[in-house]
Give the backbone structure.
Amino acid sequence: MPVDAASTGSGQTICVTGAGGFIASWMVKLLLERGYSVRGTVRNPEDPKNGHLRELEGARERLSLRRADLMDYESLKEAIHGCQGVFHTASPVTDDPEEMVEPAVNGTRNVIRAAAEAGVRRVVFTSSIGAVTMDPNRGPEVVVDESCWSDLEFCKNTKNWYCYGKAVAEQAAWDEAKEKGVDLVVINPVLVLGPLLQTQVNASIIHILKYLTGSAKTYANSVQAYVHVRDVALAHILVFETPSASGRYLCAESVLHRGDVVEILAKFFPEYPIPTKCSDEVNPRKKAYKFSNQKLKEVGLEFTPVKQCLYETVKSLQEKGHLPIPSQNDDPLKIQG
């Protein structure tokens, strides 16, 4: 963090939607550290699951939690009024089309409309790699970047409603922002890992947890891109603070085969029953796709290496009581290897 980071946001208020979530909690933490005041929207400010936000440094002085619902325009309008920026990260995470698509699209439209009415300087929208990569016609040599969009028909045909919902919600954000004259910037993160601030385990962390608990006996013959949660939160702040930032920003550090993931985990944490067999030993090993994260590097983001990311995820799961802590812990940072 730069020396003057604490004064960066002084006098500015950012509204973070869905503030209790995995990524959003880190946004709140980093914004407070940089001197911003934060208004976090949550379903119920009194819910104990939002307690971790009140414990963050600076929260007592500069954080207020507001009851708001994405489908309730008036509640959003009230939360966003008087803010200089909005980080819209609240979104359903489900493969149920009814629960995913309509709330994601209409909720996003409501946030942009409320931001326009409040005259905010910039809206930073958390989209997803799901809106980018689902395209069966993209060859393996094509570099995935901000110009790529998921094929909606392909998402529908494969019943991948999460990716479909993310793509149509992002498109709705661009359409609404254009119509309302809102300065919109979009972050497209890949699968997000790293330490949890909240108490519950979220969907992306379960992806790693299953390899440590013995519930997954094998690993899939597939590849996945990963990024550290702090990097995703910081990416939102950097594009908000960079006047020239525009368009979409792909937020990814590495693409790994599941076999690489279990290998890294086994090296750091040999005491857990990490699978060593692939569920598909017939087909050739899937190759990692190429991607570009150059745009975020240009606004000053330095990505955390994926090995460190995986290590910190497991340590956090231990600390939060989601994983038994082995009696003797090996030398911690064997990350260099």
